[in-house]
């Protein structure tokens, strides 16, 4: 599909154009999804005591929270192609708010496990965010737009670590006991999710020139594929080895971030003898790096592309992945709190830059199957989190040992980047598209703060 009037610049403080409204609503929606998705993580020490969970059971709930997202991410990209990102996001947010609030009814490991499994579906929001910004922004800034919207969404992993213990503490100050407090605290992200879903429907549109239904009625977009067409689109993406190479790469960066979001608070709480609030604040720093780190990954991807084309984007991703793996190895060996925090921040920087660099490449793999490509690669992140989850559910393996093995896995996964190739024709076509986008001003946006 060919979308017209994509913005070739980004005006961060503009809400006047459909491109910038999609940009701001998509990152905020993803941010709120993180709020609901990982809202329970910083309260796990309390939940553990209330429900009597073992380390293995906690590990199983961590796996559950990201496992279902693999399936939903694979499906949501194709759904975006059919009904558009606006309606897809609205349905996901509104329906996803229900299990977030319902987790408060959990009274056993089994019911808590099922609730976390259901909540994991809202993690598919990432694919919609990347899809929406990919069709709104031109090649010269799409890497930056994708990375920034996803990064500010991932920032929700940090704000959640900080806000949820504060909400919980506030409820305790009002006289609520701990067993009821963590349950009541989860109602907050649930309500925000539902309201955001309603706003997304009324304040955004699918593409620069209108919603998909309008574009199809005007003949500007092909008719929505039926089940067979959707299957063909998905298979076209699934048959491309580059998609699976990026699947592995994203498993080793975003999958690692999801894992850290799940274990960071309880890791610092147990290993450094901290209070729940302090552990949450420190764990939150990891996610807060998304304020700029993932954006940097996208900016560098666009800069490398200006000099080396699509090959430049690939080279940058390899560098970021390799540095991530090395930093994780160092983090796993830290026993002094201040050093652990410092190395965690360096590690976080490269994790998130690698994520931004990955989706600086995704829009160029197969434009006709963009939703399917984004869905498969995005699902890789959750597949990685599931695989990593098994390292942290064993009673015989410490968290530090798990992190060390994870660092080795990341370094090995970085080699997959080197198999991503583009034909000379595609390289030349995208180099021209980049030059054209960089050389003209559509008026749809601006790479500035104006």
TrEMBL record:
One of its GO terms (biological process) is nitrate assimilation. InterPro entries: MFS, MFS_dom, MFS_trans_sf, NO3_transporter, NO3_transporter_NarK/NarU-like. It is found in: Cell membrane; Membrane. The chain crosses the membrane at residues 21-46, 58-76, 88-106, 152-174, 180-203, 243-268, 274-293, 314-331, 337-362, 369-391, 403-422. It is a multi-pass membrane protein. GO terms for cellular component: plasma membrane. Residues 22-425 form the Major facilitator superfamily (MFS) profile domain. CDD domains: MFS_NRT2_like. It holds the Pfam family MFS_1. GO terms for molecular function: nitrate transmembrane transporter activity; nitrite transmembrane transporter activity. Keywords: Cell membrane, Membrane, Nitrate assimilation, Transmembrane, Transmembrane helix, Transport. SUPFAM superfamilies: MFS general substrate transporter (SSF103473). Belongs to the major facilitator superfamily. Nitrate/nitrite porter (TC 2.A.1.8) family. This is Nitrate/nitrite transporter.
């Amino acid at each position: 599909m060919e979308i017209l009037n994509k913005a070739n610049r980004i005006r961060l403080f503009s809400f006047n154009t459909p491109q910038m409204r999609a940009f701001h609503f998509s990152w905020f929606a993803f941010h709120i999804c993180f709020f609901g998705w990982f809202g329970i993580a910083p309260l796990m020490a309390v939940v553990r005591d209330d429900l009597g969970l073992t380390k293995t059971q906690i590990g199983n709930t961590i796996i559950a929270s990201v496992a279902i997202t693999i399936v939903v991410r694979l499906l949501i990209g194709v759904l975006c192609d059919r009904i558009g990102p606006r309606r897809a996001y609205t349905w996901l947010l509104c329906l996803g708010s229900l299990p977030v609030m319902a987790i408060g009814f959990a009274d056993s490991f089994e019911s808590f496990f099922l609730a976390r499994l259901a909540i994991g579906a809202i993690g598919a929001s990432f694919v919609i965010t990347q899809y929406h910004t990919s069709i709104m922004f031109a090649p010269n800034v799409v890497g930056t737009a994708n990375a920034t919207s996803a990064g500010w969404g991932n920032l929700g992993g940090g704000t959640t670590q900080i806000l949820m213990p504060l909400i919980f503490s506030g409820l305790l100050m009002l006289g609520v006991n701990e067993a009821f407090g963590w349950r009541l605290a989860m109602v907050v992200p649930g309500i925000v999710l539902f309201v955001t879903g309603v706003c997304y429907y009324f304040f955004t549109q699918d593409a620069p020139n209108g919603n998909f239904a309008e574009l199809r009625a005007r003949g500007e977009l092909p008719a929505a594929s039926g089940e067979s067409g959707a299957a063909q689109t998905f298979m076209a993406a699934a048959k491309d080895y580059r998609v699976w190479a990026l699947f592995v790469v994203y498993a080793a960066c975003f999958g690692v971030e999801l894992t850290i979001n799940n274990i960071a608070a309880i890791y610092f709480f147990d290993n450094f003898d901290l209070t729940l609030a302090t552990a949450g604040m420190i764990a939150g720093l990891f996610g807060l790096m998304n304020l700029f780190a993932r954006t940097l990954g996208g900016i560098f991807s666009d800069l490398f592309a200006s000099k080396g084309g699509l090959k430049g984007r690939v080279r940058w991703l390899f560098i970021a992945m390799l540095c991530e793996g090395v930093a994780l190895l160092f983090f796993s060996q830290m026993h002094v709190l201040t050093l652990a925090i410092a190395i965690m921040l360096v590690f976080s920087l490269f994790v998130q830059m690698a994520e931004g660099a990955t989706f600086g490449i995704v829009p160029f793999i197969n434009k006709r199957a963009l939703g399917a490509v984004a869905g498969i690669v995005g699902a890789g992140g959750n597949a990685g989190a599931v695989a990593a989850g098994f390292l942290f559910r064993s009673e015989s393996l410490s968290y530090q040992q798990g992190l060390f093995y994870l660092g080795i896995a990341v370094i090995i996964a970085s080699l997959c980047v080197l198999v991503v190739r583009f034909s000379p024709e595609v390289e030349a076509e995208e180099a021209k598209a980049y030059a054209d986008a960089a050389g003209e001003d559509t008026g749809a946006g601006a790479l500035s703060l104006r």
